[in-house]
Amino acid sequence: AQSVSQHNHHVILSEAASLELGCNYSYGGTVNLFWYVQYPGQHLQLLLKYFSGDPLVKGIKGFEAEFIKSKFSFNLRKPSVQWSDTAEYFCAVNPLSGSARQLTFGSGTQLTVLP
Amino acid sequence: ETGVTQTPRHLVMGMTNKKSLKCEQHLGHNAMYWYKQSAKKPLELMFVYNFKEQTENNSVPSRFSPECPNSSHLFLHLHTLQPEDSALYLCASSQEGRGKTYEQYFGPGTRLTVT
C-alpha cells in the first residue's frame, strides 16, 4: 500500500521567512498529488494539485509545489509567509491505477508563523 | 460555504448511545467519503460510496455503519462506541469519471467525544 511521509511535524517561522514543507510518497506508478490546508477551526481546503504537465504548480495564496518524480517528492513552498498562513498542511497522493478514489494523506505539518 | 455540510458539528455520547452523523453535498458529485481525523495521525479513510454503492470499507469496526440513500447524502450511524473513537469525523465528496481529477471537497467535520 502507498504511504505519504511529511517529515516536519511542526514548523515555526517568523513573518517574511521562506517556507518549504517536505512530502514524499512511496507509490511507484502515476499519481495525482495534492496539498490541503486546514486553518484553525476551519475545514480542509485544497491548496493546489498536480496531475500532469508542468511539475511546478501554483496554488492559492502564493503557494507553489514542485513534483520531482525521481525523488517521489512534492514539496510545498512559499517565498514569504504571513501570520495568516498559520495552519496545518496535509500532503495527499492518489494513485491512478487500482482504487483511484484512495486518497492517502500524510500526518500533517503544523505551521506557526510568528508576527 | 464549502458545498459540503455536516451535522452536528459537535457530539458527546456515552458508550451505550446510538447516534448518527449526517453529511450533505451541494456540488453535484457522485462519490462521497467518510474519514476519521485523530490528533497526530494521518486522515484515515473509512468508507467510500460511488453512485450510492459502497465501494470501500477500510477494515472499520461494525459499530460504525454507513448509509448513502442518494448521491447527495451520507450518514454514519454510531452505536456502542469506545472512548478511542473520539475524533473529528470528516465527510468529503468528489466527481468520479474518466478525465476527472479526483480532488475531494471536505466538510467542516463533526467533533465526536465518547464518554
For this entry, give a set of tags:
heterodimer; A: 115 residues; mainly beta; Immunoglobulin-like; 4-stranded antiparallel beta sheet; 12 strands; 50% strand; globular; B: 115 residues; 7-stranded mixed beta sheet; 0% helix
Outline the structure in words.
The complex is a heterodimer of chains A (115) and B (115). Chain A is mainly β. Chain A has one domain: Immunoglobulin-like. Chain A is 0% helix and 50% strand. In chain A, the strands form 3 sheets. In chain A, strands 2, 5, 6, 10, 11 and 12 form a 6-stranded mixed β-sheet that branches. Chain A has a 4-stranded antiparallel β-sheet with strand order 3-9-8-7, with no helix packed on it. In chain A, a hairpin with a 4-residue loop joins strand 8 and strand 9. The mean pLDDT of chain A is 91. Helix content of chain B is 0%, strand content 56%. In chain B, the strands form 2 sheets. In chain B, strands 2, 4, 5, 6, 9, 10 and 11 form a 7-stranded mixed β-sheet that branches. Chain B is globular. The mean pLDDT of chain B is 89. In chain B, strand 4 and strand 5 form a beta hairpin. By secondary structure, chain B is mainly β. At the A-B interface, strand 5, strand 6 and strand 11 of A face strand 5, strand 9 and strand 10 of B.
